[in-house]
Amino acid sequence: WFPSNYVLEETDEAAAESPSFLSLRKGASMSNGQGARVLHVVQTLYPFSSVTEEELNFEKGETMEVIEKPENDPEWWKCKNARGQVGLVPKNYVVVLSDGPALHPSHAPQISYAGPACSGRFAGREWYYGNVTRHQAECALNERGVEGDFLIRDSESSPSDFSVSLKASGKNKHFKVQLVDNVYCIGQRRFHTMDELVEHYKKAPIFTSEHGEKLYLVRALQ
């Protein structure tokens, strides 16, 4: 993927673009996971097909429990899925929903509903979700969104800035918007209002892939 109009995508070391892991492990031990302490509850971001017997197949949107983080293999977590199967999962294919075991193991864990914010700089706008994290935005887009759905949230790293989170095929996109002297800056472009920015990227691509696929802000996440 390459930026359109110099719009820069936010990076996330835990979710690298097109991750590829082919037998990188060093003999991680396996067990059936019975009695293991649950470290996290996670949700899968992409489908994964195993290449060794140690690895666990899964589809996008599955919920699993992390029961071990092998010290000799930090890029992989041992997980247990809803069917009781245990195996290794690449950690950048999942997002952590909560720490510890699920309250109702037979059901997917319930996470707090993320919706438009009632307070904050753009309170009342259908696309403004306020102080939600990148992970919460990912979960909301994956659960309820279709390609082109978006939300705008407060930046986690810079309190005065914002991030545009966009549902895209394969992997969601996140773009940083800086507020400088009451002007909203995204890449090399400047806008006097956030509404102006949103309307612009409904008509012009906010991102263009190396194959020419264009991404637009289509509608606020419902």
TrEMBL record:
Which cellular component terms (GO) are annotated to the entry? cytoplasm
State a single Pfam family of this protein. SH3_1
TM ranges: none
Q: Which GO terms describe its molecular function?
A: receptor tyrosine kinase binding; signaling adaptor activity
Checking PROSITE patterns in the record gives: SH2 (PS50001), SH3 (PS50002)
Q: Name one GO biological process term.
A: ephrin receptor signaling pathway
Ranges for the SH2 domain?
127-221
CDD domains to which the protein is assigned, alphabetical = SH2_Nck2 (cd10409), SH3_Nck2_3 (cd11903)
Listed A to Z, the keywords are: Phosphoprotein, SH2 domain, SH3 domain
> Taking every annotated instance into account, which residue ranges of this chain make up the domain SH3?
37-99
User: PANTHER family per the record?
Assistant: CYTOPLASMIC PROTEIN NCK2, SH2-SH3 ADAPTOR PROTEIN-RELATED
Q: What is this protein called?
A: Cytoplasmic protein NCK2
Q: Which organism is it from?
A: Neovison vison
Specify the taxonomic lineage.
Answer: Eukaryota, Metazoa, Chordata, Craniata, Vertebrata
